[in-house]
Specification:
By secondary structure, the chain is an alpha+beta fold. The chain is about 55% helix and about 20% strand. The strands form four sheets. It has a five-stranded mixed sheet. Strands 4-3-6-5 form a four-stranded antiparallel sheet. A two-stranded antiparallel sheet has the order 1-2.
């Protein structure tokens, strides 16, 4: 696993980098393609409008007639006329052309296109006949706009058939690239979304692998601890059984009783370990049920304090009871709640030096009953505080077996508190001690 894991990380990282680079390259190509399509659609729409304008404007000319009075060499009804080519401005307003362009662009799928236009005469100098409001302003920005010039050619069959275009339709697309990007909005959004999903999947995969690696190490540690915890009582029982076979021990009732008690005590110790492991399994499956009854928390704390007097004497320690709650009746599971308080006090004694002082503090609020277990022990690092309630996790103090246990006690405490819909938090300073605070809701039975 140690060798495979870095390889997997490298391969996934390379794959993800490759996907992102391909996406970037695809975006660049797609932008160029979309720009060409954009221009083609603008040209097509412009040609449609120019063709429509030529149909209506070139349908006839303006006639100018002249007739002389008096002597006439020509018939009276004979007149001559001079035709002048009509212009776009003679037949259409700016609003008319704007409307035609909008309809043409909509037809080509350019519904929200921003554009400016002008109609010019005299193809040599491009004299502006009519223009949109911001045409001059946008045409000055030669960096960002894209210009299209479309000749308005007389329609075949008109009076001016065969003439060159005398007018041109100018179309300016301001912020051309910006508008092209806007047309790719949804494509970009989905592409980015899928890339984010891939990155998230990569992150979850790596995180899961790291968690699995950590759990594997913790479980290995747990197995080592469990082996040690069972090996010691088994060895003690084995020695006691051998001693019971000795004739001197058989004939001495006191010695026989002594070794018999050792076997019983070690057997109880192993049964307690087995119960702890089975209890943890039930907690993980959430199959345990609470037997909620009103209990007096102060009585439980006093009883637990008495039970640990021998362990406290070994470390020249003491327990101080600061039972400030006026009403100590709380609806909880008496067995489980007694166990978790016992676990907290047991940990305070285990992880401490000489002259230990454990303070058990209680007080009551309108909604919660609060219990604090304070000690002046060795304390915990920030990493240990973060992981103290993790299953199988144990705070090491040098030798892995210098403190007995499987790393299940605090996980059990957290599970019981959660089952009671309460909260537990820990504050600790390395070398100065720790404080565990439990909050139990007073209306638990009603919930």
């Amino acid at each position: 696993m140690k060798r495979v894991f870095p390889i997997i990380i490298v391969l996934i990282s390379l794959s993800l980098t490759g996907i992102i680079l391909i996406q970037i390259n695809w975006f660049k190509n797609q932008l160029l393609i979309q720009q060409e399509r954009f221009i083609d659609r603008v040209d097509k729409a412009g040609l449609d409008v120019a063709e429509d304008l030529s149909k209506h404007v070139m349908s006839g000319g303006m006639k100018l007639g002249a007739r002389r009075p008096g002597f006439q060499l020509l018939p009276n009804d004979l007149s001559f006329s001079i035709s002048r080519m009509p212009t776009i401005s003679d037949r259409y307003t700016i609003g008319d052309i704007q409307s035609k362009l909008v309809k043409a662009f909509n037809k080509e799928g350019l519904e929200n296109l921003r554009f400016e236009f002008a109609v010019t005469s005299n193809s040599d100098d491009f004299v502006v006949e009519m223009q949109s409001e911001h045409f001059d302003k946008e045409s000055a920005d030669t960096t960002h706009f894209r210009r299209r010039v479309i000749p308005i050619i007389p329609e075949s069959g008109s009076n001016f058939d065969g003439l060159l275009a005398n007018e041109h339709l100018f179309i300016i697309i301001p912020d051309f690239k910006s508008q092209v990007w806007q047309s790719l909005t949804w494509m970009i959004v989905f592409s980015v979304l899928f890339t984010v999903i891939i990155i998230a999947a990569f992150y979850i995969t790596v995180r899961t692998m790291l968690n699995q690696k950590k759990m594997s190490e913790i479980k290995s540690d747990f197995i080592n601890n469990m082996t040690h915890e069972f090996k010691t009582p088994l060895a003690t029982i084995s020695l006691a059984v051998d001693a019971l076979k000795n004739d001197k021990v058989i004939n001495d009732k006191a010695k026989w009783q002594y070794f018999n008690n050792i076997i019983k005590d070690e057997n109880k110790r192993m049964n307690k370990h087995v119960e702890t492991i089975l209890q943890a399994a039930l907690m993980e499956k959430q199959e345990f049920r609470l037997n909620l009854v009103p209990v007096h928390i102060h009585e439980i704390l006093t009883q637990i304090a008495d039970n640990y007097q021998l362990q406290l004497q070994e470390k020249n320690g003491k327990i101080e009871l600061l039972l400030n709650a006026t009403n100590d009746t709380v609806t909880v599971d008496e067995v489980h709640f007694t166990n978790i308080l016992s676990n907290l006090i047991d940990n305070a004694i285990k992880y401490s030096n000489e002259n230990l002082v454990v303070k058990l503090v209680t007080h009551r609020t309108a909604r919660h009953f609060i219990i604090q277990v304070q000690d002046n022990g060795i304390g915990m690092s920030k990493e240990t505080v973060k992981r103290i309630f993790e299953k199988f996790y144990r705070a090491h103090t040098g030798n892995i077996h210098n403190v007995k246990g499987f790393g299940l006690g605090m996980s059990y405490v957290k599970s019981v508190i959660d089952a009671h819909k309460g909260k537990i938090r820990v504050e600790s300073t390395l070398g100065k001690g720790s404080t565990f605070t439990i909050e139990v809701p007073l209306n638990l039975a009603e919930e």
